[in-house]
Amino acid sequence: RDLTSAEDALDDVRKRWGFTDLEEHDFQHTITLKLNKLEIERDDRLLEMNQIKANIETLKRQATGPVNEQVEHQIESDPVMLSLAQQLAFQKAELAARLTKLGENHRAVREMRELISKTLKERQVRKAEIAEQTRQSNLKNAQDTMVILQSRLEELEKLVQEAAAKKRDLDIARVQYEQRVSIRDERKDRLEETKSAIEALKVLYDAPETPKVQSMGHAPVPLEVSSPKWQIYFPGGTVLGLMLGVGLAFLIELLNDLVRTPIDVVRYLNVPLLGVIPDAAEDEQLLGVDRCLIVRQAPYSIVSEAYRRFRANLKLSGAVEASKSLLITSGMAGDGKTSLAVNLATTFVAENKKVLLIDANFWRPSLYEIFPRPQAANDKDEPFGLSTMLAGLCGYQEIIRPSGIEGFDVIGSGPLPSNPAELLGGAQMEQLLKHQRESYDYVIVDGPPVLLVGDTKVLAKLVDATILVFNAGATRRGAAQRTIRELREVNATIVGCVLLAVRAMKGGYFHEQFRSYQEYQKPQLAHSI
Question: Is 114 a member of any domain?
Answer without folding.
Answer: yes
